[in-house]
């Protein structure tokens, strides 16, 4: 049965190329299902986390979201990008399939202007555009099937206790050597995609450099690089700085065509 399930998953999944040329395995669930999952998660977040009462800040976030969304490639520019500003001190934001964006008020501790806020939002939208949610779900489906096959084989020979141990150890190895490294690759890719998107929308790509410098200064302790889901901070800054130089003409071209965002909190 597990072998049949594995074959079914292989048939359903497809190989594609990410925006940076990386090979991806996607398709464990349909785009419609991904959009429905995104809408459900967004609704649950709004039901369980207080929304900010600062209308001027919510409008500020919306200004940045709209400026970026209108310059996205198809089909992403055809989505209605819904957003919410949550009252939460964490320096965090996220985007989900189906065009759902959540920003926490804590992000303003490190995103000091529109360009830095655009770097946050574009990075998160980059995960959606690069189909990272689809890719992670597909990889996890493969991982779970693989563990099921291995555990069943061991259990049939050595008993249930050994089968359970195999599942626990195998799960830890997959998390450290398979799933997390993929997440670091996705984070780096979202940097590339997001920085380009913000420049095309007319935001200064150097805002991404300033943002992650502020993030590094605010984060006094980090997990070991091997277990981290984010790229090494120093390498990340170097790459962002190098790309910003090449993307400055992209920003300037956006300005000449009328895409020059002027987003700021009202009454400031």
From TrEMBL:
Annotated ranges, domain Peptidase M48: 58-243
Keywords: Hydrolase, Metal-binding, Metalloprotease, Protease, Zinc
Name of the protein in its database record: M48 family metallopeptidase
Pfam families: Peptidase_M48
Highest classification ranks of the organism: Bacteria, Pseudomonadati, Pseudomonadota, Gammaproteobacteria, Lysobacterales
InterPro entries: Mito/Outer_Membr_Metalloprot, Peptidase_M48
Cofactor detail note: Binds 1 zinc ion per subunit.
Cofactor(s) demanded: Zn(2+)
Family: Belongs to the peptidase M48 family.
Membrane-spanning residues: none
UniProt keyword Iron-sulfur, yes or no: no
Species per Swiss-Prot/TrEMBL record: Thermomonas beijingensis
PANTHER family recorded: M48 FAMILY METALLOPEPTIDASE, METALLOENDOPEPTIDASE OMA1
